[in-house]
Q: What sequence folds into this?
């Protein structure tokens, strides 16, 4: 069921400064910021040879990551994203095994334009896990 690590998401207080840090300090390939109003975030992707880092900055006070940043003013790792081939099958298998899917259980469109669901951190040792459906190669 589980595929590769798609990305690690880090909430930051200043996305421009964080992007510049990765670009200038590490020589990383960094995307332009993308505002995603329906998710309440601005996002930047840092491309790595084997995965991505996703920088997130709250877009407004009602952003789902605003509280995280309030509790962690310097920012920090917010979630990990794991790829799955078929999100509904993955969701059903996870729920059948007692894992909690956050929200209404229906996939939402993620920052990559693909279906995503989040799994309760208490079911994964304190880590918020996102599952993301990806096209089969």
A:
């Amino acid at each position: 069921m589980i595929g590769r690590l798609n990305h690690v998401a880090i909430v930051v207080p200043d996305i421009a400064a964080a992007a510049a840090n990765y670009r200038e300090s590490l020589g990383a390939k960094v995307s332009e910021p993308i505002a995603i109003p329906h998710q309440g975030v601005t996002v930047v992707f840092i491309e790595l040879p084997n995965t991505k880092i996703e920088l997130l900055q709250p877009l407004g006070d009602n952003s789902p990551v605003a509280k995280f940043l309030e509790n962690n003013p310097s920012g920090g790792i917010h979630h990990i994203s794991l790829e799955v081939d078929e999100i509904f099958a993955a969701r059903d298998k996870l729920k059948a095994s007692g894992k909690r899917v956050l929200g209404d259980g229906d996939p939402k469109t993620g920052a990559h334009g693909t279906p995503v669901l989040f799994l309760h951190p208490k079911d994964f040792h304190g880590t918020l896990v996102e599952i993301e459906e990806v096209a089969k190669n």
